[in-house]
Fold these 3 entries.
Entry 1:
Amino acid sequence: LSSDVAEARRIAIDVLARKMGAAAHGALVNALTDPDAGVRRQAVAGLGLLADQQDAERLARLAQGDPSGVVRAPALRGLAALGDATRYTLAVESLSDRYLGARLAALAWLARVFASQSATTIRELVTSGDHFIALRAAVILAHDHATRRVAAVERALASADFAVRVAALNAINEIAPRPI
């Protein structure tokens, strides 16, 4: 953990979290301030494995304020895994994060924990100009609002961005899987 090599610290945090569980809690918390975003990401992922409600405030601070999206996204996923239903505003605000992974994590958190409270927001996201979020929202609403769902997929399929078109094809498979 005191190595000058960030990759070594990342590996150490990963091993501690998976092998020592709750006994590694202190080391994981200390690693949240590491200068390397990858080390902080591993520490957040490790805290997520522990699923300790006492870490919700730490995760919320990281989700809001860490300069790296690779840390904000797992912090949001950790809050969702904890079932944190006290930070609806943070979940909604995170839909505007500049990092796609954080936006997707926020959407998943809304769908999982705030389902009834966020239904309107999720329906509106299907028409979003953010194709990746629109497609994920369409998948979440797979059993409802067929017209919006189809429109989101059609818009994404027409995109000039290859990654968006691929995401649309994956969404089609999730929305209406073909029998094997």
Entry 2:
Amino acid sequence: AQFLRANGFTNAHNLAGGAHAGLQKIGEARESFRAAIEAAPHYQQAIGNLAKLEARLGNLDEAAELYASILEQHPKSGAAMLALAGIDIRRNEIDDALRWLEKARADSTHRHVAALRLVQIYILENRNDKALSVARELTLRKPGNLEYLLMLGRARLANRQLDKAVETFKDLALRAANG
């Protein structure tokens, strides 16, 4: 019963923080998230929610510190790595973002998102061979996945493999039409 009371207390503060954030009551949201974290310093969800709030407000250093604290507790947290990559992208620290995305690919829960973002950034950064390599890996894992085919087509375009890009886009269109 004591565990449920303590867990309910921290969860209530975390959920209240989310509600306050939705109502644009930023001060109250921070207070609620911090109360949840103070009650349970390893409460990853509350730490992540506070980090998301800070990132949304442009407080990127604060957000990065919070995500780093999640990684201290959970070194393989793909969600924290993806978030840090997003912060680095906003800071225009692309190489750091790419390192986080590569690390996040090791987390099976977040492999899909990390790989798709990698392809996009590699294309934007004219690292087209790397984009193609990651896109091929994706389509080998799930050949019929429409998102993966789209990324493969884009990577082939970026690599000037125009005939292969057309083939890929035709395959994508056919699969999309057949649902």
Entry 3:
Amino acid sequence: GGPLPVNDLNPMQREFLANRASWRTGPDGQPVGGSDVILKPRRVRATSMVLAMCMYAACRYPNTVYLSIFQTKAKTLIDSVIDQYLFGLASFLGVPEGYDVAQMRVGNIIRYPSGSRHLFASAGSSKRVSRTTARGHRVDGLHLSEARAYAEPEEVWAAAGKALSANGWAVCESTPSADR
């Protein structure tokens, strides 16, 4: 069961990957810091692409931390994203039959054998909650999904931005409002 993995990039994803400032590496193969904003139409799989980039980096760079922040406070949506992520991870890693990638999940955190972690969080619904985003973490990759819909986007960015390492990557992807 579950969705079929998408193994091809659409034109918008290819353009982003060709021109991005974030998720790059230097001649030494180490990350080079940078950030991008993706203003996108619906259904171009930008969220899936950024999650796949986090997945790749977590496998490639041991002991790194990635944080994806979503606009919802609904645990069911974040659980759904994590379930889809784990399904993709199993395909990406080519895990042996019978291996359950769900054992890599601890709450809203995926723990990789490399020591890397990917955290999934809500942007919160108040300034008080938003100000605590990423507190106590050093983040190598920050993914802000649908930031336009955050209750307190400036507070989330201020808090999460402080956690971003010097060579960290940040991507904010969002669909512009259709009602303006």
